[in-house]
Write a structure and sequence with these properties.
alpha+beta, 7 strands, binds coenzyme A
Length: 154
């Protein structure tokens, strides 16, 4: 089940990020991601029966027509079972309801190769996102930043 987050989801979201240190290894950033659920458009995936939290996504709107996936994560035990696709679907529906035509995400680029982020890039490409650009200056030469975008109006 996909639904908006509640205040009592925050500990579970924090625990989920802590369980994915290859992607979420900076505690201060993780705390900011969890706080963002209080203010940003966001969705959580929960088990239909137990209501255990399995994943979440938060969107950062930019102007009227553009929204960025600020954070997205699925419990490691639940990868490859369709939850990521379901969360992207919820984000796309939110964009459609708010006349947002561009959904984008910034993640680590291939120029500073990392196997974990290779999987992330494959996921987004599988969801229909295309590479807009890679930057070695945005986060610095040790951490290439790749912007992927989906044009929802097409
Ligand atoms: C990326 C992530 C959110 C994907 O969630 P998920 O629930 O595993 O993804 P899904 O099962 O919904 O996969 C959706 C599609 O992408 C494909 N996919 C998912 N992971 C993939 C991978 N590593 N390589 C290739 N394809 C992949 C699936 O095959 C699936 O395609 P299908 O529906 O045609 O079978 C999840 O793996 C995750 O939390 N990763 C760690 C954190 C992260 O990378 N967050 C994003 C940071 S910007």
């Amino acid at each position: 089940m996909i639904r908006p987050p509640r205040a009592d989801d925050r500990n579970a979201c924090a625990a989920l990020l802590a369980g994915l240190p290859e992607w979420f290894g900076i505690p201060e950033s993780n705390a900011a991601y969890v706080r963002s659920l209080e203010t940003l458009p966001a969705f959580v995936a929960v088990d239909d029966e137990t209501e255990a939290l399995q994943g979440f996504v938060a969107l950062q709107p930019h102007g009227h027509r553009s929204a960025e996936i600020l954070v997205m994560a699925v419990d490691r035990e639940m990868h490859h079972q369709g939850l990521g696709r379901a969360l992207i679907g919820a984000a796309e529906r939110w964009c459609a309801e708010h006349d947002v035509g561009w959904l984008h995400v910034k993640t680590r680029g291939p120029s500073t190769y990392d196997e974990a982020y290779e999987r992330t890039r494959r996921f987004y490409r599988g969801m229909g996102f295309e590479v807009l650009y890679e930057s070695l200056t945005e986060w610095g030469p040790e951490d290439a930043a790749l912007v992927l975008v989906e044009h929802l109006d097409c």
